[in-house]
Task: structure prediction
Amino acid sequence: NYWGHWGTDGYWIDELERLKAEGKTRHIGVSLPDHRADLGVALASSGRIDSIQTLFHIFEPLALDCLIPVCQEHNVAVIARAILDEGGLTGMLAMDTTFSEEEWLWGYFDCLPRNLYIEKVKSLEKYVPDYADSLAELAIKFALQPEGLTVALTSMHVREYAEANISVLEKPPLPVEIFDLLRYKHRWIRNFYQARKYIN
Result:
């Protein structure tokens, strides 16, 4: 993970550039630690990296406001991660869904009262089936749509889900007005990545 206070200079980037110059790596990329896409803006414009990975999904489209335009300007690839918000945007979460403490998702959806998250997801159901066959498809379409977003990552460990995710590529994109409605009306600023440590 890249943290904004590292800046655009220092041993960490010097070492990566040395490895690139020696041919030991072809590209340099960083991953932003949480929802703050703006952490990567200075680095994207520095000319020292080739890609930035950032959170990007319907609830978290902030990269479109700051990072993606700068990356486009400086020819830096943008890798969108957690495009299904750790599965929450598929509608899989219910009030009685449980996760063991060993699971990555333990506590993730409970940084706020869980019913708030479920209500936010339910508010997306009105776009199904008119614009997507499922909530998951809606979220994938949203992540695939922006110009300047190079790659959208989603889990591929379950064959059925992988095939469904890949099939979205053959479907028509969201109408621009629906994409904008999702982008501006359904954004939901919260930092589950940092807040989860405060759960009792």
Observations:
- The first helix runs from residue 11 to 21.
- The chain has a mean pLDDT of 92.
- The helical segments are 11-21, 41-45, 67-73, 114-122, 135-144, 159-167, 176-185, 192-195.
- The CA atoms of residues 40 and 183 lie 20 Å apart.
